[in-house]
Design a protein that fits this description.
Number of helices: 22
Helix content: 40-55%
Distance between the termini: 5 Å
Strand order of the largest sheet: 6-3-2-12-13
Length: about 550
Amino acid sequence: MEITELSLRHTNRLVDDLANSRLNTVDYFDYEISKEDVYEKRINDLKNRTFAREKLSEYLLNYHHRHFPEKAEVIENIERLKHPESLVVVGGQQAGLLTGPLYTIHKIISILVLSKQQEKKLAVPVVPIFWVAGEDHDFAEINHLFICQNKMIRKKAIHNKQTEKIPVFHKELDQEECWKWVSGIFESFGETDFTNQLMSSVKLALDSSRTYTQFFEKLTYEMFSDYGLVIMNSADPELRKLESPFFQQLIRQNEEISQNLASQQHFMKSNGYEPILETDEKSANLFYHKESGDRFLLHRTDEKMYLADGKTISEDELRHLAEQYPEKLSNNVVTRPLMQEYLLPTLAFIAGPGEIAYWAELKKVFQTIGFKMPPVVPRLNITLLERSIETDLSDVDLTIENVFVKGVQQAREEWISMKEPVDFESQLEKSKHEVEQIHRSLRSAALAIDSSIEPFLKKNVYFIQSQLDLLGSHIDKKIQQKHRVEMDKFTRIENSLNPNGGFQERTWNIYYYLNKYGPNFLSEIVQLRYSFNDKHKIVKI
């Protein structure tokens, strides 16, 4: 395996400006990650804070003992959190089926790589933590993967609807239905020497899981426990005991948090950046959980009462809940980063492009609480380039950079235009325009004779133009047949590198590659030498 790098433009303007040093960083973040001494500065700032290290370590040990087989590397890392100088590199994601799209794996790799690099450089313990966003309740976002069937990309969702407003952490899975879905996914991959072993491993994890989140965590643990990755689920009720004091602070400063969020968003807009977070100044940015498990976003009123599903809660009652029954509360997208910062001595937060943009909205919110936002480090963006696809690229004279910049469809059309002496498409468009002009004159003359035939005339011109479109489709089909071998190569390139018009990491799943290249494939990817320079990594396999 080897890595090459590409400088690609980000679709989000703020992220692109940040990457290209066009952003006044201090307006949005507390640290400039491009500075050599950024982590030394962060360490000095963290020395002014205290953390419940013993309680955190004890909680994580209990969580891992309850859910996973013991792994020395993980237990050692959890114990190292007790060290007064220990630090954390953390990043999180939703609990996707079979670990979800590749970007989840890339984020975990980023956490492992940066923690290892900085531990060596700083000579202090740096623990990699993956924060599972179990509080999210939109099951439709994680209930599917994409597969390739007959050269077409298809979405394959599991048949398990969610009507209640409960976090995915509590969403129970139907093991029979889930295994049927898993089997269908592997069937689309095709059987290899590694298929049975992989499926047995997945089945073992599934059989010992009651919820989708547990299923995700068990697979993730199996993949990365050798590297000491610590798993932390934001929705675990036991974690709420550690969070209780901070919930009370969030309640006390609730109105100020909302006002400062709105102020930062207004500032962003004035500088031409569009905020991602959709909130209003009356939002408490906390959820209330009913006995049924349903959760409801709390809102303030002018009397500082909080409403949840028609139920009124006073501020005193809410603070009592936070103190005595913290499991009845949870964070939303605004307060979750604050809670993460409260719990963990964070050296760096690993973020995807969307997270970078929305964390920029939280600068003043962090200040409200008295925290500095940790260095926000873009996760590694990785594309896996298989040898067969690299050969296809060479055969059609296409570079991987052009795949991302132009898109495969444009490259395909340009290739055909070079191979075909006649530009039939342009002639067809010209003919359609000329036919329309001729028919317009005929319509005008016909309407002068009888205006009632206007509907017929419209159908007539539509029929003629449709026939010309049919001719175009027929000729295009003939061209495709004539160059079928090359067209298939373009299709393979597009499906592998630019599926659904986006990066590979947003569509494909790690098990396709594990099934094809074997269980050791992932360890080879993890152990490559990466640089956090915001360049896109092309890993040739």
